Amino acid sequence: MKPHTPTFVMWFEPVTHCSPGAMLSGTCPDSCDTFVAMSPATLRGDVVFGKNSDRPADEVQEVLYVPTQNHTSGEMLSCTYIDIPQVSRTHAVVLSKPAWMWGAEMGANEFGVCIGNEAVWTREKLESEHALLGMDMLRLALERAESADQALEVLTSLLAEFGQGGLCVEGPNEHFVYHNSFLIVDHRRSWVLETAGAFWAAELVTGAGVFHAHEMMSILRDKESGICMEGGHCTTGSMVSVLNPRGATLHFLTGTPNPCRSIFKPFVFTENVAPLLKTVAPLMKTAEDKRPDRRHALYRSQECAFAVTSPAKLLQGLQELEKRGLKMLDEMDSTQSDPAGPCSLSKLFSNFVEEEINVHQIGH
User: Does residue 28 carry a catalytic annotation?
Assistant: First the structure.
């Protein structure tokens, strides 16, 4: 299919995709919400990407950094359900991902490519569990592509070679499966990729009015529209990325449920990024019939703080911390992609996590 260029400012994945059977049964699941705003709608010609990951309320989402890596010839890669051949070199990525799976709900790579995926339900039959999850394909595209165009090629090639399918939630008694769509973004262009089984179609996005990162964060926090979800399925992680055409890029991730109670913490790709220890789920073994406790340190801290402290008191301190991160956008210019310098940037996200935890503790 030859893509064409539509004339809208932002692409919104509908809040809900339902199969006829789901609607009749009253169990219609809600999907995520992914957005992009492009020049000339944005300040300084930035591209602003944002996503809420809406998943089961008891599922932990972690923020994981994986550096650039070289791989040996013939090496195999274990994804969530299947093994596939590894490529010779993979790019550095930052991922917001359900802790139990290999793939990710959203993320970015060192070249400024951002991708978010969505659940869709169609009449096409899904593959058995011996296939790639849409979240696996998202991570693979970020690890292997240097542009949105290349990421589109990687995703469609993976779909053709390995297919999509497999359980999308953790647990032996779960039977939740879906097809996938993707929003693929870099500082030059954005693609919408829709899939149904082995079929796919792609479309370019263009923009036209004024937009900023904090507007994207406000959209992701909107409860009335259902974009910020609560209940059995809720927003378990959120992300906003600002891609500047001159090369300066900042990514903001929560790593915790409900963006109304979380802050968007800045992350920058730089040398020697410090391990994100407090947003990665602990490794533990448990009985086969029990789901392990995957709550990481930041998740536990937020959960405890809002259980014992007035939300208004906590939110005031959290909002001040988030404003400091947003100020870094004003420091971005055409000659310096690392506004705070490489030494401080290596621990930027980790330091904001520590400060968020401190706000939680002060609130006690």
Answer: no
